[in-house]
Amino acid sequence: MSTRYRLFAGVAPGLETLLADELAAIGADVGKPRDGGVEIAGERELLWQVARDSRLVETLRVRVGQPFVAQSFEELTDRVARLALAAFLPRDPPELVTLRIESRKSRLYHERAVAERVIARLRERGLAAEEADAPGPNAPPPRPEHAPPTVWLRIVSDRVQVSVDAGGPALFKRGYRRYVGEAPLRETLAAACLRAADYDGSQPLWDPFCGAATILLEASAIASGLAPGAGRVFAFERWPTHDAQAYAAWRESLPPPQAKAPPPLLVGSDVDRRVLAAARKNTGDLPGGSAPITLVGRDFAAALDTVPRGAAVVTNPPYGHRLSDAGLKQLFQRFGKTLQRRTDLDPVVVLSGNPTFVQASGLRWRQVARTRNRGIGVSLLRLER
Ligand SMILES: C[S@@+](CC[C@H](N)C(=O)[O-])C[C@H]1O[C@@H](n2cnc3c(N)ncnc32)[C@H](O)[C@@H]1O
Questions:
Q1: Distance (Å, rounded) from C-alpha 94 to C-alpha 96?
Q2: Can you list the domains of the chain with their CATH numbers?
Q3: How far is the CA of 367 from the centre of ligand 1 (A)?
Q4: Exposure string (b/e) for 113-123, b if CB count within 10 Å is 16 or more?
Q5: Ligand 1 atom nearest to 214, measured from its CA
Q6: Which residue's CA is minimally distant from atom 4 of ligand 1?
Q7: What is the pTM of this model?
Q8: CB 211 near ligand 1, within 6 Å
Q9: How far is the C-alpha of 181 from the C-alpha of 236, rounded, in Å?
Q10: Which segments of 230-297 are extended strands (E)?
Q11: Which of 184, 214, 221, 384 has its CA 20 to 30 A from that of 245?
């Protein structure tokens, strides 16, 4: 008999609806998108599938028990002690558990005090819990796939929901080595840009301001049918309730990666030679069977004759740290004119970190989402042709 899980798939705030669409396409029964993520419910195979196939998800947690009301430390620790946490926390050897508390608009507002009480109670149950950011004295340095399991207590208006990490840390990483330029995108944000363009890997694609080629690498993986989590070890694999045999059989049963044939032409351009060198290293390291990427070390307009007709454009233009305001405005104007001339380039999606972009481009854009990249507010825009 398989267990039914309630899961919370987390994403950068602002990208919840894009994540909900992606999870529905993977086959999840998706709840209403809310602050920083989406609730889904399903059997263990759904957890396995989402962990393996979602390109947008950044954290994956399993809910432990139903939410409950707690207004005192006693109420809280009594309820936590009764939860079926043991199903999700490795006991042998006893592991360190990282505890994260988030409290809003609640009587139990003092996160540190909450953590201390819960840690003491978990210790009574033989769990060596530690607060997040306080590495234990005997804890070995965590390797990504063997980081201590994380337990979250989210308290909002006195209602508490306890969750345990199911994915593992840094789900945005794809497992290949990344050389980065200035302001590189997380892979999950690159995936969100491609999703906003409905990119399925069959169309040629141009990133005119490609930087370290994050968007192109993600497009190549999509075109090659490579699942982002195919080679990853997930936190759920260490749960005592995890059925390793069933998981291995499930993985065996999956169809082999289906690459698009012929592979689409993927083109990137960038004026910065150092950044392009990083892009060359990244794209030279592609896993076998990936759709190849062509890089052009020129101004985007000079690269235009290498861009195939009918290509999609997905890009993240400069934010303006290095160029003057006038220089940036001129760049956006030139880009707008290029898109006006090449009406065959469609769809066009831009992740813009500069508020002058829309006006300077002289074109009409629809805002698909608004989120943050490295602390900077960015808009995900799709050109209205
Ligand atoms: C925000 S970064 C792109 C980051 C990229 N998405 C990544 O993940 O690394 C913008 C890039 O535009 C490049 N750039 C600036 N002016 C350009 C121009 N006229 N033509 C082509 N690229 C340009 C910069 O060198 C920079 O690498």
A1: 7
A2: 4-165 (3.30.2130.30), 187-224+259-383 (3.40.50.150)
A3: 21
A4: ebbebbbebbe
A5: 8
A6: 211
A7: 0.92
A8: yes
A9: 33
A10: 266-269, 293-296
A11: 221
